[in-house]
Amino acid sequence: MNDYLIKAITLMALGQYNNVIKYFKAYMDEKSHIPLSKEVFKLLLKACNKLSNDNRTYIRELEAYLKSLLDSDRERIVAITSLLDETRNDLIAICTEVVNIINTNLLKNVEEMREKVLIYNMKGDYYRYMWEVNNDDAIYREATKAYQEAMSICQWNFKPTDPYLLQVALNFTTHLNNANNTEMAIVILKRVIQNAQTEDLQNDDFLKKSYVELVLKYLNESLLRFQNIFNQNQVQIIELMEEFEIDYRSRRSG
């Protein structure tokens, strides 16, 4: 077994994930002419998810703690804000490294359609994680582009009830809603759900049928939540317009 791969797997076994991605990258650079095996890809995905999920959890907890502090506790606010910025930068660094691996190592060595979907979906996820902490328009566009690529492959090659398509739709619409593009998320969810409902699952095995039904449940819940968000936004817009009109009339009459 390759030396870099041994180091990566050993660190994962010890629960020390900080340097794991570096060794996976070194392994893939050294073996760039060889397609990545499914086993190594799964290990890489596990390591990336572990690091990014940990940092996203830390960020949410720090943000909640920061909101709970009183304005008078300036010293603690400054310290936690600094720690929050450091954690956000750590997450961006991890995601940037993962995206670089995807672009330089993974995509060029993948031919199987399902693996391509996994990788483009993964690329969209890591751009989404970056966008969540910096709201950069260019990052948003890259995430959108990656999810669209994954959706396109699914729609051209898989059935409407394919678990890969449903999972990408769930992640993509979450991204759109987070970026206040809720209306587009609703359109996509409606189309995916309607297409899936036309398919007969009776001939599928129990595990696949159960998984599809579970993801469809999540998609329907997301659709309902996004519709509520969209309706609330519309109400707020109407209220603001009414306030503006009242203010405008009062100024003219005054």
UniProtKB/TrEMBL annotation:
Pfam families recorded: 14-3-3
Domain (14-3-3): residue spans on this chain: 12-221
Protein known as: 14-3-3 domain-containing protein
Lineage: Eukaryota, Metazoa, Ecdysozoa, Arthropoda, Hexapoda
InterPro entries, alphabetized: 14-3-3, 14-3-3_dom_sf, 14-3-3_domain
Similarity comment: family membership: Belongs to the 14-3-3 family.
